[in-house]
Amino acid sequence: MCSFNNHNVRSYAVILFCILSFIEFQSAFAITIMTYNTENLFDIDDNPSKQDESYLPLNKKKKEFCTSIPVRKWKETCLNLNWDREKLRVKIKRLSQVITSCCEGFGPDILVLQEVENKKVLELLRRQLNLSSVYKPGILINSDDPRGINIAVLTKLSIIDKPILYPIPFIATGKNKILHSRGILRVDIKNIANYRTNKEQVFSILAVHFPSNRHAHSYRLQAMRFLTKIAKGLPQDHIVIAAGDFNNTQKEENQFKLYKNFSQQYWTVSHLLDLENPSKILGTHYLTTKNQWSFLDTILIRNSDIQAKKLKIKSIQIINTIENQINEYGQPIGFLNAAQQPHGVSDHLPMLLTLIL
After folding, report:
1. Minimal CA–CA distance to 246: which of 266, 271, 229?
2. Whose CB among 32, 55, 148, 325 lies 3.0–4.6 Å from 42's, allowing a Cys bridge?
3. In the prediction, which pLDDT does 26 show?
4. CB–CB of 351/56 below 8 Å?
5. What is the pLDDT of residues 96-107, one digit of tens each?
């Protein structure tokens, strides 16, 4: 910033430059929002009401449960993985390194997470993050997911009202009947005063983790419709952001156009925007068996909030600069290798959206 005194003010041009610099500084207030699927962030304690057997120390596991798992890969993980305190420590440290690699080393203002078992392990992550940042106690409401993987939100900003977890009212279709819902987590967050109106701005964050691709596309379509219904009912003076793992593969997008259709109707889908260097953004997840990138994870902004000029979308980034996070081809490396030892960070890459208010 400029300093005004009789010694350094030489002309009206200098004064004008300083005033314009001040206005630009005031008007360029940025909010950063990240979504990140942590890939099985479990604590080391058994929850008898959930199927968390795979992510326990070997001496706490029930072998008969592991052998009953029908999917071979999951069965082997359950039988052989020793999910102990040291592995959890490494997992949390690496997740924290990825998250704080953005935003000048302090992490995003709002952080939406998927596959977090409970508040206890969320708090462990928050403490690690707070070695360099200032996140408030996290938000996590236990869902009906049988494994106990939940959606969570961390933020540096003030949370207002009571967070709500909306169960998704799925209607069973096809052979894969859904009897549970991870839900949609709503957290209302208050930002500091907007420079244009001098009023505090409320963000309604809708955090999601839609059904996986083991289930029919119709379930993800139902989830998207329910998400949109919730957003339509929120106050028009809120900025509504939906973020998370939508589990919409590129193959499905090509066939059903879930993102494209809803972006035309109601949402702005961040990764579909024509921003600078879009070719560098390939996706957030790479499916090796199909040799295909997908935006399983993305961030949506309610169209009416952009149209009302409440905000400007500055940038969209995929965060992938940390050691062990990606392989030589830029693809995310899952946390565990074939020997069930720490290898990468997560099989997803985080997406970061920067908004200018």
Report:
1. 271
2. 55
3. 44
4. no
5. 999 999 999 999
Sign of CA dihedral 63, 66, 70, 71: negative
Which of the 8 DSSP states describes residue 283?
Answer: -
List C-alpha distances in Å: 354 to 65, 99, 110, 317, 330.
44, 14, 11, 9, 22
- Positive or negative, the Cα torsion across 334, 53, 165, 138? negative
Per-residue pLDDT tens over the stretch 295-324: 999 999 999 998 887 788 999 999 999 989
* Closest C-alpha among 40, 37, 115, 33 to residue 284: 37
Residue whose C-alpha is closest to residue 153's, from 111, 92, 103: 111
For the chain, what is the total number of helices (H) and then of strands (E)?
9, 14
pTM: 0.90
What the block records as the tokens of 305 is 């909030």
Q: Among 209, 216, 205, 224, which Cα is nearest to 147's?
A: 209
3-state class (DSSP) for residue 264: helix
Q: Which residues contact 351 (CB under 8 A, 6 or more apart)?
A: 34, 35, 36, 243, 270, 271, 284, 297, 298, 299, 316, 317, 318, 319
Residues sharing a CB contact under 8 Å with residue 280, sequence separation 6 or more, in sequence order = 318
Angstrom distance (rounded) from CA 348 to CA 353 = 16
DSSP notation for 168-218: ------SS--------EEEEEEEEEEPTTT--EEEEEEEEEE---TTS-HH
Letter string b/e over residues 131-161, b meaning 16 or more CB atoms within 10 A of that residue's CB: eebebeebbbbebebebbbbbbbbbbbebee
For residue 166, CA distances in Å to 40, 257, 325 come to 22, 25, 33
Least confident of 254-263, 275-284, 327-336: 275-284
What residue type is assigned to position 309 of the chain? K
How many of the other CB atoms lie within 10 Å of CB of 44?
A: 18
Mean pLDDT for 114-119 is: 98
Q: How far are the Cα atoms of 20, 218, 297 from residue 6, in angstroms, in the given order? A: 19, 70, 55
CA–CA distance, 137 with 213 (Å, rounded to integer) = 32
Lowest-pLDDT range of 48-52, 73-77, 177-181, 332-336: 177-181
